[in-house]
UniProtKB/TrEMBL annotation:
It comes from Lachnellula suecica. The lineage of its organism: Eukaryota, Fungi, Dikarya, Ascomycota, Pezizomycotina. The keyword DNA repair does not apply. This is Acetylxylan esterase. InterPro entries: AB_hydrolase_fold, Cutinase/axe. SUPFAM superfamilies: alpha/beta-Hydrolases (SSF53474). GO terms for molecular function: carboxylic ester hydrolase activity. The keyword RNA-binding does not apply. Keywords: Disulfide bond, Hydrolase.
Amino acid sequence: MTKLVTDYISSCPDSKIVLMGYSQGAQVVADTLIGSSTSGFGGGFGGGYGGSSAASSGGLPAADRKNIIAAIQMGDPSHVPGLSTDKGTSTKNGVFPRSNSANYASDGFGSLIQSYCDTGDEYCDSGNSLQVHLSYVQTYGTDATNFVVSKYKAA
């Protein structure tokens, strides 16, 4: 996805981009923004898609970060609790916890991201409920939409 985003920005340098992902897609969004750092995936889960690897690139190049106006993650298996980006009720790590979560703030993305994870989600909270994992759009869809619209208007 990193290559897709950088190629798009090369073609449309004034574009405003929102990245959204659900479950593994949410993990790919994080890999795209700040690079891959999860255990269990060798060179990184985000690697190999379209010839690009967030693990090798360290995420989105600094010059392209200004184009990202918001990111929504729902049910991210690389979730780490206690971050400013966290929304929902989760207090546990996901099944593949991210070790580079501090990069959200240091790379300037902290205020642009909302990551939704609730207690019991079998992937983002290491729980045992698939139903919780499948409920984010219904539960938080309006909040996520309002967040994206507010970021677009402010950009």
